Amino acid sequence: MRTSIKALTVLSVAFCLFSAKAGAQLSKNPNKFLGNITTRYQVDAGGGVPAYYKLWNQITPENESKWGSVEGTQGRYNWGSDTPFNYAKEHNFTYKFHALVWGAQYPNWFSSSMSVNDRYNAIVKWFDAVKAHYPDLPMIDVVNEAVGMHQQGNPLMKESLGGGGNTGYDWLINAFEMAHERWPNAILIYNDYNTFQYDTDAYIELVRTLRDAGAPIDAYGCQSHDVDNISKSNLQSAMARIQDAVKMPMYITELDINVENDAQQKAQYESIFPLMWEADYCAGVTIWGYVYGATWVDHSGLYKSGSERPAMTWLKEYMATDKAKNAKSPFPNMKKQISLYIKPSSLAATKGDPTPITVRAQMTNSSKTIDHVEFYADNKLYTTLTEAPYVVDFVPETTGKIELKAVVYDSDGNSYVRMGGITAYEPRAPYKSISLPGTIQAEYYDEGLEGTAYHDYDKENQGNTIRTGNGVDIVSGNSGYVVGYTENGEWLEYTVDVKEAGLYTCEATVSSPAEGSGFILAINDNNNLTEITDLIEVPNTGAYDTYKTIPGRTKIALNEGRQIIRLTIVGKSGNNFNIDKIAFRHLEVDTTLNLNITSEMSPTTINTNTRLYFTPEYADREDAIKNVKVYIDGILYKTLTKKPFEAIYRPTVKGSVNIMAIATDTLKRESEIAKMTLIVNNKRVPYTSSSKSTILPGIIQAEDFDKGGDGTTFHDSDTKDEGNSKYRTDNEGVDVMRANGGYVISYTAVDEWLEYSVNVQSGGTYSYAATVASGSDNSSFRIGLMKDGQEITLANIDVPNEGRRKYSDVSGDLLEELEEGEQIIRITITGANCNIDKIDFTCTTGVSYITPDDMNAAGTRYNLGGAIVGDEFKGIVIINGKKVLQK
Where are the alpha helices (DSSP H) in 213-309? Predict the structure, then answer.
């Protein structure tokens, strides 16, 4: 592999020469590419399919350049992306790095157990490593799939990169700033899932906020998965809606039409592809795989058994038309011409007050210079700037959303446009007078528009209209009004008068039909947020109209006088809750009443329906305790008024259970909060039809792992069943796929594991024969025996790369003997992307090859059950009355 700086520099020149040497590909448009991805980590697919460069003129590695693939071991880099990178160099077409930040694929060593600072430094080193290896990237997916909780790792990435901050997206802005610092001439892209059909509002909100905050984002990517049935009119409407909102270049980034019927697939391409390609704001289209059976979905390929499907035939014909050849693009010659961004000092301005706004402008071609910049507000010329830095002291004359525009003219008379936006508000004012101690009604947030007194994603009041002119969702509830339809990252602010300095309890009245959400309270001091509570989790109260009071406590003292308290929503997308009010009570803490919670269970990982005894223990002053309140997941469970203050609890469902206890003395002073977390698992049950353990010697079918749930009988890196076989409904994300005449475990990732209850009927030494497949190098797994909570390694198995659909047997001897009786066998993935069908375990105790003649002797071979077997059988066979191991 050529990875020198010199080689990479030559590549950047090759991209510039694209238009002169690209006649072979389907796209004859000099300004717009039609690209694809690698196939099983290779560029040319083979199998009768034309060479890549004869079809496509842009390439995106499917997995090779993701952080988890490159830096599986911290500090060690596997640049498998060099193969497509160098291929693009050789054939003079463009390349996209995919992706720098993604909450789905980052290294296993990057985890919440690291400090935030260490995680941030690890991300910086990752960016630096990519910069050192690829100094001149033309296009980069800087961030992939950050809308809501589309990826479970997003909260970890968000915290690592600085959190939401004042914009709600500061972590994403930081990622783009880091990328722009290293690759100022690259087209920097935000990429997300099928935003034409899902989470469109949230996607628009995210991209527009990045743009308006002045982040160096040059384009937005619309992944086009799941467009198998979208109508042309619906797609056209969605595209127009997004573009009208963000007014930026767009890429169609991951197009696949997963339709098995040839005619239907062709018809869908005919319906939607021209709409995408001919949009003048579309800079290019990347199809996500083109070989049938070799993409992440089953039926999207355009070539099947080496022959083009009708959709591919149509695509070739369409790309040869004048409409395809002449379609406009926002990037002439597919290259970025200028770095141009409008960066206000704040997204929120006050009517009548000057707000500094910087137009960040830099030509990518050093031979060109900027002549002047025209700055517009609501399409009216506001000022003309002729010298850098291009800073405007903008004074809003009205309130509401103001559209900004910068038009840059270069020394050759060419013009470049960037849109932006800012919101102007009336000065902040309290909606109601609120004093503490006292109660904050959730709907009494301060007067002021979006971004000053509150932040709501959809800008539409989905409830009642007791307060007009804003988008906070106020609904009827709990005999009054409550704030509802809450979403992660939304916030409300309240101006309060603190009458008594010190610590406070804060009892919130809330409702929710689901777990996984909560809120944090903070003091906002001139946009500097200081959290005054930890996360206050909102439990499942049973329904939106069932309200419960949950406890909280400030962790720092409130100062006397006027304060602004911000309530920020935290939680999973879709798990919204209602909040009615928060009652604040001044608190004196009696530190001599420190509690500890004890349980008869140790460790604190238990099964459902286990009877537990919780006894708060305290240091002294037993006679001063008036009561002890015990909370289960934030809801008051029992108030204990008699010694020994013991509570009995029996968990009924799987999950994490938080136990909390607070003691109150006769002077109404409270103890410190005692906390305990229980991990409750489902009871383990074998998956076999009889719910009995698999008999060994015998076969473990990989898809028949025990019932019990993630963390109990298996662990999967995500909750999505990518195999989509629907073989079993209780796998909670294990990827089971139809293959090899049955079902197999697939889409495996490092450190995933599965467990199987087995009954060893013949103790002793064993051999194994694993039926496996892989389309990747370095796929592997481990067979282990679980004993007293520890794993004993039985075998380490390397899976050969012969294609993910070609199954073969890998055999060997177990490293340890198996004892008779019930056991737990664990399979742990040690090298990703191996498919596992089954493992055949054969007892070899007392078996030996008597002589080579015995092994090769003529005669019928029988297995231990007396059935005749052939040479292909692996295991113990009987030949002429002698037992031998046939491998």
Answer: 232-246, 262-278
